[in-house]
Specification:
Helix 3 runs antiparallel to helix 6 and helix 4 packs antiparallel against helix 7. This protein is of the alpha+beta class and 193 residues long. The chain binds flavin mononucleotide (FMN). Flavin mononucleotide binds next to strand 3.
């Protein structure tokens, strides 16, 4: 950990730099991703906060080339072809939702909130930010064929894959400018407007 903080300082990248550096990479180099790097991303996701500390996630890393091809085909063919770029990613990570603690589930029902999806989104972003810090590109993919993905990896029908994250080294080294709403539109102090 200390070694990594040092590395961040060394390349002079603070948190906002990192948040800017992460973007959705849609074209990948044909180079494998070292396992230690993937493990570091999983560790970052593991440390994410969650409602009642439920940690309702499971990450399935698909890096075996034949299986990855098979999975990309199952996930993104047909109507979902706009995500075809995912075929170029050497790694696809499935984020599967898992049981919440009963307190988080009941709290969610009472409050009409889906805490599980919030938890998964936070963990996925931890994963992607860690990847960016390591010089890896990612893209979160919410559009995929759920049934075919489950079938390809023999995931039981009751399980739900919430996201797929494509991972690899970006083919293009330049970070695009962020298209974001202005701060004044997304925040206010002490009142709604
Ligand atoms: C929950 C979620 C689902 C997404 N699904 C897709 C997708 O299916 N295909 C895709 O190309 N991008 C997808 N994206 C990426 C967004 O389009 C992208 O994050 C957004 O346009 C902002 O761009 P940036 O990530 O480059 O900063 C998804 C992002 C999130 C958070």
């Amino acid at each position: 950990m200390v070694k990594y903080l040092y590395k961040l300082a060394e390349i002079n990248m603070n948190f906002l730099d990192l948040a800017n550096k992460r973007y959705s990479v849609r074209n990948y180099k044909d180079s494998p991703v070292p396992k230690e790097q993937l493990e570091r991303c999983i560790e970052a996701a593991r440390l994410a906060p969650s409602a009642c500390n439920s940690q309702p996630w499971k990450f399935i890393i698909v890096d075996q080339p034949q299986l990855r091809n098979h999975l990309a085909k199952a996930a993104f063919e047909g109507l979902l072809d706009f995500n075809h770029f995912a075929f170029s990613a050497p790694v696809l990570v499935l984020v599967v939702s898992q049981k919440q603690k009963i307190s988080a589930k009941l709290g969610g029902i009472v409050k009409g909130r889906d805490f599980r999806l919030m938890d998964i989104a936070i963990a996925a972003e931890h994963f992607c930010l860690q990847a960016a810090e390591l010089g890896l590109g990612t893209c979160m993919l919410g559009w995929f064929n759920q049934k075919k993905v489950r079938k390809t990896l023999s995931i039981p029908t009751l399980e739900r894959v919430e996201l797929i994250i494509s991972v690899g080294f970006a083919a293009n080294e330049t970070t695009p400018d962020k298209k974001r709403k202005p701060t004044s539109e997304i925040s206010s102090y002490n009142s709604f407007s």
